[in-house]
Amino acid sequence: MPFPAFPRLGSAAAAAALLLALSACASSPAPTGTAEPGTAESGTAGTHGSGGSASSLPSAHVHGLTVDAKTGRVLLATHEGLFDMSTEPATKIGPTNDLMGFTAVAGTGVFYASGHPGKDSTMPNPMGLIRSSDGGKTWEQLSRQGKSDFHALTVTKSGIVAFDGQLWTSPDGKTWTTATAGFAPAVLAGNAGTNTVLATLPEGLQRSTDGGRTWKPVPSSPVIQFAAFANDKEAVGVEPNGTVHHSTDGGTTWTSKGKINAEVQAVAAAKGTEGKLQIWAATEGELIVSRDGGATFRPAEAG
């Protein structure tokens, strides 16, 4: 099925909607994740690297990124399964499945995912929608097994929004309704405290305020490739050239912050314990974090 590819803009190459690629990117040298004048809770990816330090990535293909601001736990959903980046080296969590789509209900340990079964898995291919209620240790099959590989996936106050070539909404992950949208999102960004959803497209941002059922373009928005909510109001977005943006009104208006000087593969955002916005990003082979609202990024450290 066709998926959108973002254009290459500026010196930082676009990731070409890696979240939606049926296979992840090929290897290349890992750049240093530094940034200019943009911080931690859910996102998406596809990258490569070796697990030598806390900030390097344990898998060649990363599809999702989420952060729990209260515990500081950073998780990567990859082609080889789920990894906890808060430890050194990164710790594998649960079975080895290709988690092409991944999203978390903040602060609950509840995850939703989709993709393809690993070599020793008994799940059907594609896996449809699966759910973990214990932080990724075990997974249950909810629906659309053998039918859907959701590459874009998020949660809202009223349920789940997912894309497998068709945009769907579900109140419980078991019953589905097709949404009235004629586009193919690279990333879906939502938050369990609101029904606002953002969909990133090469032609511009789309926004829903009813849990993904109906959509409208955001005319004043920059062209955002990766987006994530920090809470029910604040969101962050990254352009294909690495420019970081911040929104305080659910994605209606945006303020430019910094610029990540590396190829971004995923972002996550949340409010830290002191109320400061944190932005995390998976780049080529490295995990980086901003604790100053996106002004600067540094390699993430374990713990």
Structural summary, described in words:
- With 303 residues, the protein is an all-beta fold.
- It has a single domain, classed as YVTN repeat-like/Quinoprotein amine dehydrogenase (Methylamine Dehydrogenase, Chain H, 7 Propeller).
- The chain is 0% helix and 39% strand.
- The protein has no helices and 26 strands.
- Strand 23 (264-271) and strand 24 (277-283) form a beta hairpin.
- The termini are far apart.
- The relative contact order is 0.21.
- Mean pLDDT is 83; it is low at 8-53.
Which structural traits does this protein have?
mainly beta, Methylamine Dehydrogenase, Chain H, five-stranded antiparallel sheet, 0% helix, globular
CATH domain fold name: Methylamine Dehydrogenase, Chain H
Number of DSSP strand runs:
26
What proportion of the residues form beta strands (DSSP E)?
A: 35-45%
Can you tell me the residue ranges where pLDDT is under 50 for at least 5 consecutive residues? 8-53
Number of helices: 0
Please tell me the total number of domains: 1
Main sheet specs: 5 strands, antiparallel
Report strand order across the widest sheet.
1-22-21-20-19
First CA to last CA: what distance? 40 Å
Order of helices and strands: EEEEEEEEEEEEEEEEEEEEEEEEEE
Structural class: mainly beta
Residues in helices, as a percent range: under 10%
Q: Which CATH architecture is right?
A: 7 Propeller
CATH C-level: Mainly Beta
**Average residue pLDDT:** 83
Tell the overall outline.
globular
CATH fourth-tier homologous superfamily: YVTN repeat-like/Quinoprotein amine dehydrogenase
Tell me the radius of gyration: 17 Å
